[in-house]
Amino acid sequence: MLKRAIILVLDGFGVGELPDAVTYGDGGSDTLDNTARFAGGLDIPNLASLGLGLIEGVERVERVLNPIASFGRMREASPGKDTATGHWEMSGVVLDKMFATYPEGFPPEMLKRFEKDTGYGCLGGRPASGTRIIEELGEEHLRTGKLIVYTSADSVFQIAAHEDVIPIEELYRVCRIAREFLYGYNVGRVIARPFRGRPGSFKRTEGRKDYSIEPPGETVLEKIKGKGLPVVGVGKIGDIFVHRGLTEEIHTKGDADGIDKTVSAIGKFSEGLIFTNLVDLDTLYGHRNDHAGYARALAAIDLRLPEIMEPLTDEDIFIITADHGCDPTTPSTDHSREYAPLIVYGKGLRAGVDLGTRATFADIGQTLSDIFGAGRLANGVSFLPSVVRQPFP
Fold first, then answer.
1. Pairing of β 203-204 and β 156-162
2. CB neighbours (10 Å) of residue 245?
3. How far apart are CA 213 and CA 241, in angstroms?
4. 65, exposed or middle or buried, with CB in 10 Å at 0-12, 13-18, 19+?
5. What pLDDT was estimated at residue 391?
6. DSSP per residue over 42-101, as a string?
7. Cα–Cα distance for residue pair 299/303, rounded to 1 Å
8. Distance of alpha carbon 30 from alpha carbon 209, whole angstroms
9. Cα–Cα 20 to 30 A to 75, which of 116, 309, 343, 365?
10. Is 31 in contact with 328 (CB distance < 8 Å)?
11. Largest CA distance in the chain
12. What are phi and psi of 363, to 5 degrees?
C-alpha cells in the first residue's frame, strides 16, 4: 500500500512538440533532444536508467534495456503553455480557455490603470527577456523611480524594481494592487522581479514572488489535505496554487536548495504528498537561450536524483515530470508547447512499463487521488493499475 508521493517538476523540461505546437509559434521545439544535439550530448545517467530515453519521440538519450522505472509522456489538454496551467492540470483542473496574452505589449489603458492605482510611473510595457529589459531600462529606473513592467508569450504582468529604489515589501504591495485590477484582464500571474547591481551588471535577486489567479476548480492537493494528510509544497508550488491545498510551504533558493529541501521533507514526512518545482532549467537557461547552461543544470539535477530515491520505501511513489517546454535552442525565449515526460519510480512498483502517451497531465492528479482514496477528479485517468504489483481495485 502506498502512503507517500513525491512529485518532482522540472520546470521547462519538454520532450517534443505537441501536435498543435505550430499554432503557438513552437513548431520544431523539442527541449530535451534539441538541447542534447546543440550541447553535444547530455550527462544524465540516472534519468536514462529510469527510462527517459525510452519515451516515445526521445532520440538523444540512451535507451536502456532494463529501466528501473516506468515511463511515458503526457499531452497538455488545456490551451496554453504556462506554469500555472501545467501545474493545475497535473492536479486535475483542465482549463477551457487560455489566459490573456499580450504579444504586442500591454494596452495603454492597462498601463494607465497601473499608474493610477499604484502611484508609480512605468517603463517598458512590452514583451521582453527579464534580464535584457533590466539592462536596457535599469538606469532610467534608477534615475526616475519608475517601475519596469513587461510580459512574455505567457500570461504574465512582470514588475521589476531595484531593491535600493523600491524596497522589496513595497514591490510586493504594488504587485498585490496590480493583481486586483488584472483579474479583469484575465492575466494569469503578476510577478515581482527584484534586482540589484549597477548599470552594466544588474542581477535579479531571489525575492521573486508570483501572484496567480486561483485554480477554477478543486485540485487533488485540496482533496489530499481534506483526508488529513500532509501536502508539502517545495519551491514556488505555494504561489502557483495561491496557497490552496497545502499544509506546509517550503521556499527555495535555486535547484540545489530545492533538492536539499525535498530530501529534508522526505525525512520529515512519512505520508502524504511532497510536491517540488525546480525552476532553474526554465528561468536561468531556457528563457535565456543558453543550451550549454541548460545541459549543465540538467546534469546537476541528474547527479542528485539518488539522494531522493535512496531513502524511499516500498510505500512511496516518485514521479518526475514537467509543466511545459522551454527550448533554449530556438529563436524564441518563451515557453514551448511540448509533451511533458512521465517517469514513475517506486521500490515496490513495477518497472519498465510503457505508460504511452497520456491524454492529459491530469492523469497524475487522478493517480494521486487513487493512492490516497480521495475519489474522482473532474479530469484524468489513473495509471496506478499499470504500475502496482498487486491487482488494483
1. unpaired
2. 23
3. 8
4. exposed
5. 66
6. ---HHHHHHTGGGSTT--SS---SS-SSEEEEE---SSS--HHHHHHHHTT---SSPPP-
7. 6
8. 28
9. 309
10. yes
11. 68
12. -60, -30
Q: 358-380, pLDDT tens digit by residue?
A: 999 999 999 999 999 999 999 99
Contact 295, 315 (CB under 8 A): no
Please state which of the ranges 27-31, 178-182, 284-288 shows the lowest mean pLDDT: 284-288
The Cα–Cα gap between 2 and 367 comes to: 11
Strand locations in the chain, DSSP E? 4-10, 70-74, 122-127, 147-151, 156-162, 189-196, 203-204, 209-212, 231-234, 248-250, 272-278, 316-321, 340-345, 354-358
DSSP state of 146: P
Q: Please report where in the chains the cell 517534443 appears, as a residue.
A: 16
| Parallel, antiparallel or unpaired: strands 231-234 and 248-250 | parallel
Domains of the chain: which residue ranges? 4-96+215-387, 108-212
In the block, cell 505508460 appears at 355
How would you classify the pairing of strands 272-278 and 231-234?
A: parallel
Helix (H, G, I), strand (E, B) or coil at 255: helix
> CA 278 to CA 256: how far, in whole Å?
9
- Yes or no: domain 4-96+215-387 corresponds to CATH 3.40.720.10: yes
Lookup: cell for 242: 495561491
Amino acid at 120: Y
Dump pLDDT digits (tens) for 154-187.
799 999 999 999 999 999 999 999 999 999 999 9
> What cell was used for 10?
522540472
* Cell numbers representing residue 90 in the block: 497535473
